[in-house]
Amino acid sequence: MRLNTAAMRYLSSDDFRVLTATEMGSKNHEVVPTVLIAQIAGLKGGSGVGNCISELAKANLIARVQNAKYDGYRLTYGGYDYLAVKAFSNRKSIYSVGNQIGVGKESDIYVVANETGRKCVLKIHRLGRISFRSVKNNRDYLRNRTSASWMYLSRLAAQKEYLFMKALHQNGFPVPEPIDHSRHCIIMSLIPGFPMRQLSSHEDPSSLYSSLMSFIVRLANHGLIHCDFNEFNIMILDDPESDDDQFVVIDFPQCVSLDHPDAERYFKRDVDCIRTFFERKLGYVSEDYPRFKRDVSREASIDVDVQASGFSKKMVKEFEKALADSRENQNNGEAVDEDGDKDEDDNDSDDDSDDDSDDDSGDNDDNDDNDHENV
Length: 375
Ligand code: ADP
Ligand code: MG
Fold this sequence. Notes:
alpha+beta
């Protein structure tokens, strides 16, 4: 799903009020009753709200839902995107939106720029994009309602990633600089490099290998396991300053605390991913690799710091459960996208999307100035 910047500039302030009212109403209602939207928006005059609602629905920022009990509207991904990008724009974190450089199953990545022309990355979390059942096609919708709605899940994912990235950056880990956060979106620095997946040879694989393994151990010593430490989430820098400074690690929503009951297994899985990649792609095999019990000893507690800074234990639990439920739905073939269309490609879109990001990620400096849309 593309970010629609066209509607951004053309909403009237009343339209924006009604959009915000729909978002507020969504906190307690999966489908927000039309009367509630009108009440929250507090607009004077009867037809005003109706006009705003039809403008917003035309722009696909909200969608009408009819069910047995009442008619109402829900915020679409487009509407949620709008609210986040508008917040960034008001805070001057971004000025224009450029090319999409990555699309995963659970996120869309855009190059954006601020007023000074500095290029950054906008990551839009899209959890539940394909597992969330459509209202249109599912009459049991309200009965099946769980807290695992796409909006809630995606917001938790962004919040978690932002807080962890901030703590890691402050502790000197090679991660993007987190710049701003709103709803399901994050702004971070643009890494001048490419995913490690594109490496087919390396002049000194042993130095890269040992830096990556040191990263895993140092992260664990700070209380965290990445849990998705693979060639897609390691960016190789175009112009590294030194051997110790060859890569940047991205993509943190699934990381867990060292105290997680499965920490040892996740640690080993991260280590094994790197060993397998080096063996298969670079022909490099080493018997020297970190072991959880032998090599990890806690020196710091980023896991605990992040909990204290806003991502509570309860949120961790909710998020992990919701993530597991969402993934289970996907595996059970309940792939229905936000518009309610069964999307048969979605279940195996992984490879395609990775290829997309590969093709484009080397071209960050291309002519995307021309393609930037002001917001
Ligand atoms: P997902 O959760 O969908 O895997 P990622 O955070 O891994 O999302 O980002 C997907 C792709 O977008 C990456 O593989 C990379 O090519 C690109 N990307 C993400 N963040 C950055 C960044 N800060 N700088 C440059 N490219 C990025
Ligand atoms: Mg990734």
